[in-house]
Every structure is written in structure tokens, then in C-alpha cells.
Write a structure and sequence with these properties.
Layout lengths: L1 E2 L9 H12 L4 H48 L2 H13 L10 H18 L3 H30 L3 H87 L7 E2 L6 H41 L2 H16 L3 H19 L5 E3 H19 L3 E7 L7 E3 L4 H12 L6 E10 L3 E8 L6 H11 L15 H12 L4 E7 L3 E9 L11
Parallel strand pairs: 1-2, 4-6
Antiparallel strand pairs: 3-5, 6-7, 7-9, 8-9
Helix pairs in contact: 1-6, 2-4, 2-6, 3-4, 3-6, 4-5, 5-6, 7-13, 8-9, 9-10, 12-13
């Protein structure tokens, strides 16, 4: 089942299509959010920047005009009285021409005129300032002429004529400056009115664009939230489908945002869960097969028939005590093998089960079989998977001791390995294994498949090994050592569990 991008509750119509288109854009959610955020910021910055630039431009022009008016006003109140007074003092003989300040006054006035010229922002202003500058040049020429006459020793009357010319020119300078001031005042007023009108237009544009920015921000927030909601709703629908045991449902990959990546991870997780469930089913099936084979090995008709034949033979031989002992051993053997359906029993019971089996087989095979059991009593209360040792003992008897002409001994050992493990050993002095047969058995022990395979030699070592791994984990299992004509040793390592397993309870 492939759940598409359209989910219940998606917005229909044009808005829904736009949201669907936006959500399909192959960029991450973070990029979408940052993109929308930057668009809003750029719009706001652009609008405010234009407003600020217009305001600064108005202030700059207005400040320049005010500065020119102030400078012109200072020039108007300075040049005529200063130059007239200075030249009168020279003509009247109060000051020498060379010692007078007339050129400093002219230079100061010219500097102010140049400043006004530099700040002029219109052609008319420059024309009026040019008239003032030329008038000042005329004024300077008359001052120079006064200096030349005085140097030649001219009469006072001649000097007064030049002085009258200087006063006349200074009047023209003053009138020109006043005319320039009036023009700048009119210009300032006109510029103010124009700037005010332009500023008002910008305010109108600002208040028009501001709602546009707000609408865009709200739309972007709505679209992004919808593009997040739709994939999440899809995941919600998918999880609802999976809760109905439909593990085939998958999220479609239609873009590359974070939620889609989450959906792909969800697909991987679902696939992994499906694989684990299938593996668990196979494991349970294999456990059942292993348990069935173990039980079949214990309730082997040949073993039961042979034991009953032995009991009949002993009865006919008038050995009632032996009959009682073998019947007790057989009863203990089947009682522990069945264990009321429990899988876990104390290690002490597992040892008792093996001892009952060996006792029965010892009576049957008389002198060809001997056995010894050595168990650390500190581990007897620990739990063990039922029917772990008996198949190994059976294997040692039928494939080791019976194939040796003069018989042999089976040793069963159990001891603590470190603090949390138990080492179980079944060793025989039988015929042992040839290198070829040992390699075949080791190959089967290392087979990682979970299948419980049939074995022509009864409940084989490979199946015992798989059963142990299925119950305890892959880190546990069998190891085997064998020398041909010397014997075989099989070791089993299991965890030491002090408390009884739950299925031990009655």
C-alpha cells in the first residue's frame, strides 16, 4: 500500500494545489522556511531603505540650502561695512594701504562665495553666485587702483573718487547677495514642498506595501505549515494502517525535505520490523521442531522396548531389586523428560535425568559401558534448558562406546565458568571421529541457518547446537574435540541463571 501525498484534510481548490506544489519543491523544510523568512526581510528592508534614503536626501538638500542661506547672510552683513570702513581709514590717512586688512576682507568674502558655489544645487544659484564673484573682482580692481594711486602720491580728492567707486561696487555686492539669499529662501521653500509631497507619496506606498508583506508572511506561514501537516498526516494514516497489521504500507518519496526523509526511515523501520517478525516466526517454528525432535529422542520406542525387555529379563532371572531400581530410573527419566511441559528445569534435575539414562544403559550393556558424573554442587540450583545433556550422552554411547570393541567410559562434568557461566562436558573414551567426519560435524555446527535438519544418527549434535543458540543466543553453543581411536569431548557453555525461569512454576 502506497499512501500518496494527498491526505485527508488537505486544502482543496487553487490554494490546495499551490500548497501541494510548494510542498513538492525538492528543498528541505529548513530551506523553505529560511527562503520565506528572507523574502519577508528583503521586502521590509527594501521598503524602509527607500524611505530612509528619501528622507536622508531631503535632509541633505535642505541642510545645504540652509547652510548657503546662513553663509550668504554672514557675507551680506560683513563685506560692505568692512571694506568701506577699511578703505575710508586708508583714504583719511588713519591706516597705511600696505598695513590695511582690505585684501583679507576680500579673500574671506571670496572664500565664502566659493563655498556657496560648491554647495549650489541649481543652475540659477550658480548664475547668481557668478554675478557676485565678478562683482567682487570689480571691487578688487578698485582696491588695487586705490593702492596704485596712493603709491604715486595722489591727492585726497582723487582717492575719494575711487572710494566712491568702491562704495558703489560694495553696494552692488550687497544687493547681489541679498538677491541670492531671497532666491535660496524661495528655493528652500519650493524644495521643502516638493520633498514633503514626495515623502507623502512614499508614505502611501509604504502603507500599501506593508499589508502586502503581512499577507505574504501569513500566506507563507500557512503554506509551510500545510506542507508540514500533509506529510505528517500521511505518516499518521500510515501508522494507523500498520496498527491493523498491514506491514506492507510504505511512504512515497516525492521530495527531499526532512519529513520525507523521516518517512523513508519509517519505511526502513517497517521493513526491518517485518523481517524481524518473519525471523521470529521461523525461530518459533524451529524451536517447536527442536522440542519435538528432543521429545521424540526421549520417547524413542527402541529405547523403551529395550528397557522393558531388560526388565522382563531381570524378572525372569529373579532379580527383584534390580527390577525395582531400573523401574525407578525409567520413571525418573520420563518424569524429568516431560516435566509437566516445562522447558526450563534446575541443573540438578538435568543431571539426574542423565544419570537415570546412563544407569538404564549400564544395565543393558553391562561390561562395555562405564560412566562417571562430576558436578559442582554450587550450580545445581541454576536453571538449564531441558534435554541439553541427554542427547550428548546418547551420542557418546551410540557413536563412541558401542563402536569400540572393548567398550569405554563416559564422563559427565558440570562446573562454574567464571561467575556467570556454566561449563558442561560430555567425554567418552570411545572410537572417536575421523578427521573427515569431524570436519563434517564442525561444518554443520558452524552452519548459520536456522533450520532444524534431519539427522540419520538420531538427534544430532548440530541440532542440539542450534537449539541451544535459539534459546540462549548465538554467543552460546557446542564445541567438539576428538581424536580417532582415543575418544571425543563435547563442551557446552550456558549462562548461569540462579532464579528459576517463569515456566518452571507449577
Amino acid at each position: 500500500m502506497d499512501i500518496g501525498l494527498t491526505a485527508q484534510g488537505a486544502t482543496p481548490g487553487f490554494t490546495g494545489k499551490f500548497i501541494d506544489f510548494f510542498s513538492r519543491i525538492n528543498i528541505s523544510l529548513r530551506a523553505k522556511i529560511m527562503f520565506s523568512f528572507f523574502i519577508v526581510i528583503i521586502m521590509l528592508v527594501a521598503i524602509n531603505s527607500l524611505m530612509i534614503m528619501e528622507f536622508l536626501r531631503f535632509n541633505r538638500q535642505y541642510d545645504a540650502m540652509i547652510t548657503n542661506i546662513t553663509t550668504a547672510n554672514n557675507l551680506n552683513g560683513f563685506i560692505k561695512p568692512a571694506i568701506d570702513t577699511e578703505m575710508w581709514d586708508i583714504v583719511a590717512g588713519k591706516n597705511e594701504f600696505e598695513e590695511g586688512n582690505q585684501y583679507q576682507i576680500i579673500s574671506q568674502a571670496n572664500n565664502q562665495i566659493e563655498t556657496l558655489m560648491a554647495n549650489a544645487n541649481s543652475d540659477k544659484s550658480r548664475i547668481k553666485l557668478e554675478v557676485i564673484r565678478r562683482t567682487m573682482a570689480t571691487l578688487t580692481s578698485y582696491v588695487n587702483k586705490m593702492g596704485e594711486q596712493i603709491a604715486k602720491g595722489s591727492r585726497v580728492a582723487e582717492n575719494e573718487l575711487v572710494l566712491d567707486n568702491i562704495r558703489g561696487v560694495s553696494d552692488v555686492v550687497e544687493e547681489s547677495v541679498q538677491d541670492y539669499m531671497l532666491f535660496e529662501v524661495q528655493q528652500a521653500e519650493q524644495r521643502y514642498m516638493e520633498s514633503q509631497a514626495r515623502f507623502n507619496r512614499w508614505l502611501i506606498i509604504y502603507f500599501i506595501l506593508l499589508p502586502v508583506v503581512i499577507v505574504f508572511s501569513i500566506s507563507a506561514a500557512w503554506i509551510i505549515s500545510a506542507s508540514i501537516y500533509i506529510p505528517i498526516k500521511k505518516l499518521q494514516d500510515l501508522t494507523a494502517t500498520i496498527t491493523k497489521n498491514d506491514l506492507q504500507a510504505l511512504v512515497s518519496r516525492e521530495n527531499i525535505d526532512e519529513i520525507t526523509e523521516l518517512g523513508i526511515s519509517f519505511n526502513i523501520m517497517t521493513s526491518r520490523i517485518r523481517e524481524l517478525l518473519n525471523a521470529k516466526v521461523r525461530e518459533q517454528e524451529n524451536l517447536k521442531k527442536a522440542e519435538l525432535k528432543a521429545l521424540q529422542a526421549q520417547i524413542n520406542p527402541h529405547f523403551l522396548y529395550n528397557t522393558l525387555d531388560t526388565i522382563v529379563w531381570m524378572s525372569e532371572s529373579n532379580q527383584p531389586r534390580k527390577v525395582i531400581e531400573i523401574v525407578k530410573a525409567l520413571s525418573s527419566f520420563f518424569r524429568i523428560a516431560l516435566s509437566r511441559g516445562r522447558d526450563w528445569i534446575p541443573i540438578g534435575q538435568e543431571i539426574e535425568h542423565v544419570e537415570s539414562y546412563l544407569y538404564i544403559q549400564k544395565i543393558r550393556y553391562r561390561d562395555i559401558l562405564d560412566y562417571k558424573i562430576d558436578v559442582d554442587e554450587s550450580i545445581l540450583d541454576g536453571t538449564i534448558l531441558k534435554l541439553t545433556l541427554q542427547p550428548l550422552v546418547e551420542n557418546a554411547l551410540y557413536h563412541g562406546i558401542k563402536n569400540k570393541r572393548n567398550g569405554g567410559t563416559i564422563w559427565v562434568k558440570a562446573r562454574r565458568e567464571y561467575q556467570d557461566k556454566v561449563m558442561l562436558e560430555v567425554e567418552d573414551s570411545g572410537v572417536g571421529l575421523t578427521p573427515y567426519k569431524l570436519s563434517r560435524i564442525l561444518e554443520r555446527l558452524n552452519d548459520e541457518s536456522d533450520e532444524i535438519t534431519p539427522d540419520g544418527e538420531g538427534f544430532g549434535l548440530a541440532n542440539v547446537n542450534k537449539r541451544i543458540k535459539l534459546y540462549y543466543g548465538d554467543q552460546y553453543g557446542l564445541s567438539i574435540e576428538s581424536q580417532y581411536r582415543e575418544g571425543t569431548r563435547v563442551k557446552v557453555v550456558i549462562p548461569l541463571e540462579e532464579n528459576h525461569h517463569p515456566d518452571q512454576e507449577n
